[in-house]
Design goal:
Number of domains: 2
Number of helices: 3
Shape: elongated
Distance between the termini: 116 Å
Radius of gyration: 37 Å
Order of helices and strands: HHEEEHEEEEEEEEEE
Helix content: 25-40%
Strand content: 25-35%
Oligomer: single chain
Number of strands: 13
Structural class: alpha+beta
Length: about 200
């Protein structure tokens, strides 16, 4: 019985001695190097992800607007159109900075659709809804008139309301139209072609 107890005590002592084995100098250095390498790799990975996210954000379309040059139709137009003036706004898609543009390309602004609201100087809206704007670069719509039993009905064909603006490029947006013979202006949209360029709903006095 004593013999068994003695062996048990010796085993317990050996187990305690194993877990309490002191860490040598080489083992401490290895553990420290592993910890440092792990921290360096973690920081580098996080920084890499942040840089990629920042670059992708820089590549997104950046839209800005400025007043463009008026468009004009002068007297003696070869197509017989009335002398008129249009006011334009240039919609720009800014390019990437030069130090980044030589490596990456900016993204185009896709499916650009514009609406315009008109306001008095005090900020109160003139109309109760926004006008669907027209891009100058889009083809002119075709007006088709059909006679019905009650009245003639007009509809537009070949209507394009959206465009794509490449990085570093701009597109003109038509705002208002005024004929030389008129004192009032009219908001300009594709629907203006149905009313001979003078949409009564968008009349501005």
């Amino acid at each position: 019985m004593r013999s068994h107890i003695y062996i048990f005590r010796q085993s317990r002592y050996a187990a305690l001695s194993f877990f309490k084995k002191p860490v040598t100098g080489k083992s401490a250095v290895s553990i420290m190097n592993l910890s440092i390498n792990f921290i360096i790799n973690l920081v580098a990975g996080v920084l890499g992800i942040l840089i990629i996210l920042w670059i992708e954000r820089q590549r997104r379309p950046k839209i800005s607007m400025r007043v463009g040059e008026p468009g004009n139709i002068f007297d003696g137009d070869p197509l017989g159109r009335q002398p008129s003036t249009w006011l334009h706004v240039q919609v720009h898609n800014k390019n990437l900075p030069r130090w980044l543009a030589w490596v990456y390309n900016g993204e185009p602004a896709l499916s650009c659709h514009a609406w315009i609201t008109f306001h008095h100087l005090d900020g109160y809206p003139i109309f109760h809804r926004a006008m669907n704007a027209r891009w100058s670069e889009t083809p002119e719509p075709i007006v088709e008139v059909k006679d019905t039993e009650k009245r003639a009905v007009a509809r537009l064909l070949n209507v394009q309301d959206t465009i794509e603006i490449s990085p570093g490029e701009y597109a003109d947006l038509d705002i208002v139209f005024r004929a030389k013979s008129d004192n009032e202006c009219y908001g300009w949209s594709n629907e203006s072609y149905i009313y001979h360029w003078k949409h009564p709903m968008w009349r501005l006095e």
